[in-house]
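Budget justification aside, the reviewers requested a transparent look at the raw inputs and outputs of the sequence design task funded under Objective 1. We therefore reproduce one unedited record. The lines immediately below are the structure tokens for a 792-residue chain.
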């Protein structure tokens, strides 16, 4: 009892020590993963800030280009300004802004002449601008009036606006005038934005050509006006920030005031932008500031839960689980070591038992020199019906039925061990009573450098090998089945995930429809109601997904069409319509889009379309699962009586292809070439499933799951021909004759048993057919299985 207690304590100590090392390794790996995550987060945030700063600098460059226009000539007409902007193509080179403006510095004394000049300006429109006036009406010594405004549509409210009457704008203008640098306003609500979203304006001062600008007074006296870009902050930021980073990060920006010397920071930052309001972030955070047009923007960037900044749990499990097994193994080894003295006492008895088993085994061992048996075990003597002393000293000729068989076997065997240093082959011996026995021989020289020392041969009855081989074949079948089960599990998981996602979308969309749809349908007149239903029907139709660039281009084109049609908030409406699958502005949509309940119409159209699309997705997923289940039923169907069954070979192949569908999506192009009028083949379907499984699996591995897999089925004479071809590495000519031998494999150790093609050949032969292989290195391989019809 004391010995057992001591053994248990030692085992527990070993277990605890190894487990502690494993936990330490897990901690180190977790720390390294966190370090990599921190580094990736820091790199991403630096890249994000650089992207924003680079985009804003490109906008400032556009402003400098406009300043250059006014520097090149003293007066710029409205037509020249518009043509200049068209040449700049700002929408393509610096997207994200709402409007481009020119703000004129206007003394009160020139006000009347300026208004008259603008009203009579017919360079763009024949009727001019008869209603133009400066607003709000006021009498100031200096006015800052928005004179040029592109595009005009959607920004009419800003035309003629006197910024000198607006304190936030006036402060920015005076700072830009005095500094000569681009200047941004504080966050504000743009007069031209009916939705009231946050925006800001960046302006570049323009001075009279040739004027001295070294002194403050000189710059104030030479001021001519400002070139300006107007932004909605949300549009600018979502265009400037990498689309790959937005789903993983919450970006919040606040304005903390002007950065000029002596200016104090604002007590609290004015919110500018939030990419994911209300989202819960992880512990990764970063804060920084950028100076944008002399104002300081405070950036707070935090990581969102998700794959980009999540540690790899699988790696920790890959350390923890083997470590736990090693701890158990060490505990077992300690227990074994503690009991070694008891085992030593049993060693003599065990050796005696092993010697008895060795002597009575069906496997024979002989030591041969100059083709004479120098020694042998009792297993060889018993297998051949001799006493051991009768064999020792005798020539190995005693084992063969004739001189010819003796010479032929000796020539093949000794040539084999001379060339390859070992030889394996099957021979027919005769027992002492003259009866034949089929044996497999394994031979090797004791020392290849000293052939005179002789050779050692191990032999065993072929029937024993066949029993062991049958066991290995069963193992190979189970291994193939295990891989298929893994494929099927992955394949079924995809439609289940689609069903789950679609059901969540269904719930949200259904709740919205139930609460608002009846009321909306009552508000719509019958013609509009029909157009609303048509909109939802079209939105639910399948469509190819758009890239970010395509979606942005389509939104812009549709937004411009909506603006020309006079639809309010055209850019937002265009974005919703593109999400609903609309490719252009159909005339029948205008009435809906101009309806007072426009926002509710679009929201409910999207909800109804979501209901229809989600239902279709669920149906498709259910059909996919049903197809997989049907394939499994066909694959698992077997005839315990082993009777041939008329089988559709196309259906047999498709059953296996369905179960391997998950492998094809990774980069394999599947090509089917089936003959339509092929009659059913009498066969054992479950055995043919094993044939197709092995051939298709080998083809996928040969291509490393990248390439073209060709499956052919047609009739050749009185037989059916099935072809499985791949574009993999091919099979060298020297190995082609060996691939059907049992235990031969070209795969790395531990990845194949060498029985797959042996099983295939046995099954094909049992069906009266044959299998051929055609291959060139680097050109792939093609296996042809020829199966005869009954009676052929």
């Amino acid at each position: 009892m004391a010995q057992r207690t001591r053994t248990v304590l030692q085992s527990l100590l070993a277990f605890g020590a190894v487990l502690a090392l494993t936990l330490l390794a897990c901690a180190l790996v977790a720390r390294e993963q966190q370090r990599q995550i921190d580094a990736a987060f820091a790199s991403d945030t630096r890249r994000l800030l650089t992207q924003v700063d680079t985009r804003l600098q490109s906008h400032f460059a556009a402003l400098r280009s406009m300043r250059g226009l006014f520097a090149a000539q003293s007066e710029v007409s409205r037509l020249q300004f518009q043509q200049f902007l068209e040449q700049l193509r700002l929408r393509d080179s610096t997207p994200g802004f709402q409007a481009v403006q020119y703000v004129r510095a206007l003394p009160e004394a020139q006000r009347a002449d300026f208004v008259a000049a603008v009203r009579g300006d017919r360079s763009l429109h024949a009727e001019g601008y008869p209603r133009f006036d400066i607003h709000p009406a006021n009498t100031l010594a200096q006015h800052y009036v928005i004179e040029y405004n592109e595009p005009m549509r959607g920004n009419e409210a800003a035309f003629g606006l006197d910024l000198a009457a607006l304190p936030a704008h006036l402060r920015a203008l005076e700072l830009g005038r005095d500094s000569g640098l681009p200047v941004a306003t504080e966050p504000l609500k743009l007069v031209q934005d009916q939705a009231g979203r946050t925006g800001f304006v960046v302006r570049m001062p323009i001075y009279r050509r040739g004027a001295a600008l070294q002194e403050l007074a000189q710059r104030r006296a030479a001021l001519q006006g400002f070139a300006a870009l107007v932004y909605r902050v949300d549009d600018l930021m979502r265009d400037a920030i990498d689309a790959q980073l937005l789903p993983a990060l919450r970006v919040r920006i606040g304005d903390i005031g002007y950065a000029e010397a002596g200016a104090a920071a604002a007590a609290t930052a004015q919110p500018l932008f939030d990419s994911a309001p209300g989202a819960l972030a992880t512990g990764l955070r970063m804060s920084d500031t950028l100076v944008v047009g002399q104002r300081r923007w405070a950036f707070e960037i935090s990581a969102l839960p998700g794959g980009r900044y999540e540690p790899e749990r699988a790696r920790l499990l890959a350390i923890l689980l083997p470590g736990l097994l090693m701890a158990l193994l060490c505990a077992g080894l300690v227990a074994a070591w503690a009991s070694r003295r008891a085992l030593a006492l049993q060693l003599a008895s065990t050796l005696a038992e092993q010697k008895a088993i060795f002597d009575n085994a069906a496997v024979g061992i002989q030591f041969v020199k100059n083709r004479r048996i120098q020694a042998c075990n009792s297993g060889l003597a018993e297998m051949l019906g001799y006493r051991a002393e009768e064999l020792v000293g005798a020539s190995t000729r005693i084992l063969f039925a004739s001189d010819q068989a003796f010479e032929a076997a000796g020539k093949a065997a000794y040539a084999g061990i001379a060339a390859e240093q070992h030889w394996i082959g099957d021979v027919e011996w005769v027992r002492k009573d003259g009866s034949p026995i089929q044996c497999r021989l394994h031979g090797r020289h004791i020392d290849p450098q000293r052939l005179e020392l002789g050779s050692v041969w191990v032999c065993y009855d072929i029937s024993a090998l066949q029993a062991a081989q049958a066991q290995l074949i069963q193992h190979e079948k189970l291994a193939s089945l295990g891989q298929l089960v893994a494929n099927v599990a992955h394949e079924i998981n995809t439609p289940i995930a689609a069903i789950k996602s679609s059901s969540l979308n269904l719930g949200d969309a259904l709740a919205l429809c139930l609460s608002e749809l009846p009321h909306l349908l009552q508000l719509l007149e019958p013609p509009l109601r029909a157009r609303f239903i048509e909109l939802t029907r079209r939105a639910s139709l399948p469509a190819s997904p758009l890239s970010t660039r395509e979606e942005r281009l389509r939104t812009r084109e549709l937004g411009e069409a909506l603006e020309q049609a006079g639809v309010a908030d055209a850019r937002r409406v265009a974005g919703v319509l593109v999400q609903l699958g609309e490719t252009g502005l159909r005339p029948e949509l205008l009435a809906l889009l101009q309806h007072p309940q426009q926002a509710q119409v679009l929201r409910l159209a999207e909800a109804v379309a979501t209901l229809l699309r989600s239902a279709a997705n669920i149906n498709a997923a259910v059909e996919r699962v049903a197809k997989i289940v049907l394939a499994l039923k066909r694959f698992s169907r077997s005839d315990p009586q082993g009777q041939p069954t008329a089988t559709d070979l196309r259906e047999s192949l498709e059953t296996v292809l369905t179960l391997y569908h998950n492998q094809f999506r990774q980069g394999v192009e599947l090509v089917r070439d089936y003959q339509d009028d092929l009659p059913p083949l009498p066969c054992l379907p479950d055995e043919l499933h094993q044939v197709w499984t092995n051939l298709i699996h080998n083809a996928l591995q040969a291509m490393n799951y990248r390439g073209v897999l060709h499956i052919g089925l047609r009739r050749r004479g009185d037989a059916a021909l099935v072809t499985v071809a791949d574009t993999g590495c091919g099979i060298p000519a020297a190995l082609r004759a060996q691939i059907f031998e049992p235990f031969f494999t070209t795969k790395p150790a531990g990845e194949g048993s060498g029985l797959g093609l042996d099983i295939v050949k046995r099954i094909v032969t049992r069906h009266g057919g044959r299998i051929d292989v055609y291959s060139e290195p680097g050109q792939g391989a093609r296996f042809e299985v020829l199966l005869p019809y009954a009676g052929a």
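The radius of gyration is 42 Å. DSSP finds 23 helices and 22 strands in the chain. Computational costs for records of this kind are itemized in the attached budget.
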